[in-house]
Design brief:
Blueprint lengths: L2 H15 L6 E4 L9 H10 L3 E5 L1 E2 L5 E2 L4 H14 L1 E2 L5 E7 L2 E8 L10 E2 L3 H5 L1 E4 L2 E4 L2 H9 L10 E6 L5 H14 L2 H4 L3 H8 L10 E3 H7 L12 E5 L16 E5 L3 H14 L3 E6 L2 E6 L3 H14 L11 E5 L3 E7 L8 H6 L8 H7 L18 H11 L6 E4 L3 E7 L14 H5 L3 H7 L6 H8 L3 H13 L3 E3 L10 E3 L2
Parallel strand pairs: 1-2, 13-17
Antiparallel strand pairs: 2-7, 3-4, 5-8, 6-7, 9-10, 11-12, 13-14, 15-16, 17-18, 18-20, 19-20, 21-22
Helix pairs in contact: 9-13, 10-11, 11-14
Length: 494
């Protein structure tokens, strides 16, 4: 599409909407280049790029106004080249709208290794902008940090932790790591003393004091890293409604917990926590039926490890946890730091690109085992999100959805099955109640209390109560007495 065609299209949309948009800035500019224009150039360059059109008046419905097009175009080129740092090489042309001249500039997104683009006279901290709806806002100090750190390899995971020593690490886990490194990493590790093995692996810092440990070492092997970093943990919340609002009876959360410990322990704990809040769906295969988890367990494990491995560990981010939120229709994994590197969404799903914000931690977790197995926390091959996509496809679920921002990277899983042509639809009661089939199967053996059901199906009290109410409303179960009695039992409806 030519720049003239693009301008025609955006002007038409602006006139219909009555405003410009997040990717378009339209200015009257009758008196010359607006003073705020370098801010817009910075905002577009720090995001996905954008289009600037000068010579149209928003107040009159984006009608042309008289301009000196040649002078305006030269001033716009100068603004892009000289008033922001680094310079932006925009495509500037004099075009027409309704037969009158306008000046348009296509602002390209800046290479991530050069961001942030800032207004020279305002400095990096005060002059870096990002686009927000139809205006420009300052980047926060943390967003600036993320962009600057993206220019090279962050070193936060390799810094020594003040006050932490080898005594704060889990000794059996540390011994298993040393044995694994000596057996798998070649002669350099086989011949080295234990202290040198720990230094080469990144558990202890190079040139540090004896007994010091790095942030990577503490997170991977620590007995309780939250003693030093209380917020470097995982929070899990299960909401009863799709929009996160409380239910009519006042139920706000089905479960709300914080998971502490080392990264291997948090991964294991998160998989267990999500599992006990998941339902299972029934799928007809031939003449039989298979029960499937609402989300593949391997996908959950991978996303838990991915979020903890690739989150930002800079001091500005150490007050923010990894968040996992479960809704009736979706599961979200969010970690601070945005997406590191230049990989596109398609490349992430293909496993075609590998970059790690925390390179030392990533390499260390290749050899740190996840309890209670001997399986390492990660492979560090850039294939994790591809594996998640493959697992979701195998379960007949949509591929993961990525939500990117300057400060957060979120992966969303949806639980609506896609369905395959060779799968017969489920009929009868299982078709209506498949998410709660585990409760129905338990009650088939006879009436049970809520506490007994909790132990049988492995769900929290609030989750069991919510699902019992759902079954009761559908006429599939009934209480043996007053529903709020401590001795009430639930049974299959006759």
């Amino acid at each position: 599409m030519s720049l003239q065609d693009e301008v025609n299209s955006v002007v038409e949309r602006a006139r219909l909407a009555g405003t410009d948009s997040v990717a378009v800035e339209i200015k009257r500019a009758a008196g010359g280049v607006p003073q705020s224009l370098p801010q817009t150039v910075s905002a577009f360059a720090n995001g996905g790029g954008g289009l600037i059109v000068l010579g149209l008046d928003e107040a009159s419905g984006f009608q042309p106004v008289p301009i000196n097009a040649k002078s305006l175009a030269e001033s716009l080129i100068t603004a892009c080249a000289d008033r922001v740092e680094p310079a932006v090489r925009a495509r500037v042309e004099v075009l027409e709208v309704d037969g009158a001249p306008v000046v348009a500039a296509a602002i390209p997104p800046l290479d991530p290794r050069q961001r942030p683009c800032h207004v020279k006279t305002q400095g990096l901290e005060n002059g870096s902008y990002i686009r927000a709806h139809d205006g420009d806002r300052h980047l926060t100090s943390y967003e600036i940090h993320l962009l600057v750190s993206g220019r090279g390899q962050p070193q936060d995971d390799g810094l020594p932790v003040a006050g932490a020593t080898l005594a704060d690490l889990d000794r059996p886990a540390l011994d298993r790591l040393v044995d694994r490194l000596r057996s798998r990493r070649g002669r350099a590790f086989q011949r080295a003393e234990t202290a040198d093995v720990l230094r080469m692996a990144g558990v202890c810092p190079r040139g540090g004091e004896s007994g010091q440990v790095t942030l990577a070492g503490l997170l991977a092997l620590g007995r309780y890293p939250q003693e030093f970093f209380p917020q470097l943990n995982v929070t899990f919340v299960a909401y009863p409604t799709a929009d996160g609002r409380m239910m009519a009876d006042g139920t706000r959360f089905l479960e709300n917990v914080s998971l502490d410990g080392s990264i291997p322990e948090m991964v294991t704990g998160l998989v267990q926590t999500v599992s006990r809040n998941m339902t299972r769906r029934s799928v007809m295969v031939g003449v039989g039926r298979e029960d499937h988890w609402e989300y593949p367990l391997e996908a959950i494990r991978e996303l838990a490890a991915n979020a903890l491995l690739h989150r930002d560990y800079h001091p500005l981010a150490q007050g923010t946890q990894v968040r996992v939120e479960m809704y009736p229709d979706r599961l979200l994994f969010s970690n601070p730091g945005g997406l590191y590197g230049a990989a596109t969404e398609a490349e992430l799903l293909r496993g075609a690109a590998s970059s790690s914000r925390n390179a030392l931690l990533a390499r260390l977790l290749e050899d740190v085992e996840t309890p209670p197995s001997t399986r390492p926390v990660c492979e560090n091959r850039g294939s994790g999100l591809k594996m998640v996509a493959d697992e979701m496809a195998e379960a007949d679920l949509e591929p993961p959805i990525f939500h990117l921002s300057a400060g957060t990277f979120t992966v969303e899983l949806r639980n609506a099955p896609i369905g395959k042509p060779n799968q017969a639809p489920i009929t009868g009661r299982a078709a209506v109640q498949e998410p709660n089939q585990d409760l129905l199967d338990a009650l088939a053996a006879g009436p049970m209390t809520t506490t007994e059901l909790m132990a049988t199906v492995g769900l929290s009290r609030s989750a069991v109560s919510l699902r019992l109410r759902n079954l009761e409303e559908r006429g599939l179960v009934s209480p043996t007495g007053p529903r709020f009695s401590r001795t009430v039992r639930w049974r299959l409806a006759t």
